[in-house]
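RETRY 2/3 - previous attempt timed out on the joint model. Re-submitting the same 344-residue input unchanged.
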Amino acid sequence: MKIAFFDTKPYDKPSFDAYAQEQNLTIKYFEAKLNEDTVGLCRGYDVVCVFVNDTVNAAVIDRLCELGVHVVALRCAGFNNVDMKYAYGKIHVLRVPAYSPYAVAEHTMALLLTSIRRIHKAYIRTRDFNFSLNGMTGFDLHGKTVGVVGTGKIGRVFIDICRGFGMKVLAYDKYPVKELENDKLRYVTLDELFQNSDIISLHCPLTEETYHVIDERSLSLCKKGVVILNTSRGALVDAEALLAGIKSRKVGAACLDVYEEEAEFFFEDFSGHILEDDTLARLISMPNVIVTSHQAFLTEDALSNIAETTVDNIVTFFAKGECPNEVCFRGGVAEDCKSGKCFS
Ligand code: NAD
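RETRY 2/3 succeeded.
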């Protein structure tokens, strides 16, 4: 079986090579992202393997079908970069629903601590033998309230970590898990979460409902000095509104592992270039904003799990004609296949 692998980075190859070899799969690694210009490279392959910033829109899906490629293996959990409605009945979309919620949740806490204890500033200062503490005052997490939007796999691990710090937790989920509620965790409405949280962390998928869940209106409800954490998907946050909130001092700090327009920049080296995106450049210039480049998943453990599950999804699908990690789109809802054949 031949796999066309897009948006390849050096850290992808060791784990994929190891699992593919075990299963006799041949992988051709392309550095290019999959999009309308590069889809022609898929000629002669059985499967296309893509990541978060590859584009699987209607035009790409049509061309894949013309080329006889009917399986897209996402090596990530989110599938907002796939036009699922259009894909239904044309191509099979497999994904890795979970590879390490710990990687993402731990990175979220790393960003939060770095930001509020000014570690990013201290690192630069002490390297220059500047041992002054002026401007370095932070605040305790203990006793503060964190609002978690999305109490799935990553949200729950993040909640556990926050509890370890002695924080109170308010949660919002479209599908609340009542068993999670206790004296330290309460489900509330989104507006109540905005109004009462010192820190807000986003762990829900990007959908039409969650698009710009952090915007001018929601920020207006927030406490002054609120810290916004987004390690989920960029378009959950209206970046312009966030920037305005930072300038007006309403937002105390923001930690972003994802950015709405990240596909153009993230994962690439722009250090010798003029950054064209003024909003991103302005955000990065702020002393109270930390941006990492969609890095939260990047641990050895996660990479190994991603490769193992992706290879297993492909092998299972071609052996059985179905795979539990196929994303099924029926009745306007995309979810993992619960009933076997997704096109039936
Ligand atoms: P999950 O499916 O386990 O949990 C998502 C939760 O969001 C579920 O509980 C679901 O009910 C809830 N939800 C759905 N619609 C909602 C809505 N409208 N409002 C509020 N909550 C809603 O997913 P997960 O594994 O915890 O991942 C969460 C997100 O993290 C993914 O969607 C993905 O975008 C992101 N992610 C980022 C990275 C990274 O490297 N930065 C890595 C993996 C995942």
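The two ends are 25 Å apart (CA to CA). Closing ticket.
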